[in-house]
Design brief:
The structure holds 2 protein chains of 2 kinds. Chain A is built from no helices and 11 strands. By secondary structure, chain A is an all-beta fold. By secondary structure, chain B is mainly beta. In chain B, the strands form 2 sheets. In chain B, strands 2, 4, 5, 9, 10 and 11 form a 6-stranded mixed beta sheet that branches. In chain B, strands 1-3-8-7-6 form a 5-stranded antiparallel beta sheet, with no helix packed on it. In chain B, strand 7 and strand 8 form a beta hairpin. At the A-B interface, strand 4, strand 5, strand 9 and strand 10 of A face strand 4, strand 5 and strand 9 of B.
């Protein structure tokens, strides 16, 4: 059974804190993604990684960075958390090479920044 | 500028009837379309997809129709079941092999028993 896990389901952080969200997949997928989901805005891509140490900005990368040191792990970093980064964060992975390969999502991390 | 639009934030249908969820897109370079379903407190799961070279794809109770000239696709669920109650996201993949998806805002479907 394919699996994408995220380190926390719920997280509360203070403004200005550095926040790490971790994602691990066990399917040997090349691609990994970080999205945020907000009411009325749908899923928006923050960053995409197509290989170890390789990354591309998505639609809303400002205020975020990512790290992919191992194929199975993709981290999202909020360098200095702000209240407008309160959101549901979703990690996904997919096989590489074709856009048709479905993305498998983790359960999400609900981050609240106070 | 929103490239994938789901203009109905919500839809309510009776059990056993047909549910039709709509999606419009503006970028004619999109060549692959997918539908994802999301329950509360879970990540989205893939439901069904269609290539731009087809106009219909069917999988059990789920059928996706693509009208390229109108830049419109729809997801039909027949018959609808209470367990289908979820948020449905339409997504599109740009031509050229990009593996990133552009998602719509989602439509919340409620199927009443």
């Amino acid at each position: 059974d394919v699996k994408v896990t995220q380190s926390s389901r719920y997280l509360v952080k203070r403004t200005g804190e550095k926040v790490f969200l971790e994602c691990v997949q066990d399917m040997d997928h090349e691609n990994m993604f970080w999205y945020r989901q907000d009411p009325g805005l749908g899923l928006r891509l923050i960053y995409f990684s197509y290989d170890v140490k390789m990354k591309e900005k998505g639609d809303i990368p400002e205020g975020y960075s990512v790290s992919r040191e191992k194929k199975e792990r993709f981290s999202l970093i909020l360098e200095s958390a702000s209240t407008n980064q309160t959101s549901m964060y979703l990690c996904a992975s997919s096989r590489g090479g074709r856009a048709e390969y479905e993305q498998y999502f983790g359960p999400g991390t609900r981050l609240t920044v106070t | 500028d929103q490239q994938v639009k789901q203009n109905s934030p919500s839809l309510s249908v009776q059990e056993g009837r047909i549910s039709i969820l709509n999606c419009d897109y503006t970028n004619s370079m999109f060549d692959y379309f997918l539908w994802y379903k999301k329950y509360p407190a879970e990540g989205p799961t893939f439901l069904i997809s269609i290539s731009s070279i087809k106009d219909k794809n069917e999988d059990g109770r789920f059928t996706v129709f693509l009208n390229k000239s109108a830049k419109h696709l729809s997801l039909h669920i027949v018959p609808s079941q209470p367990g289908d109650s979820a948020v449905y996201f339409c997504a599109a993949s740009p031509q050229g092999g990009s593996e990133k998806l552009v998602f719509g805002k989602g439509t919340k479907l409620t199927v009443n028993p």
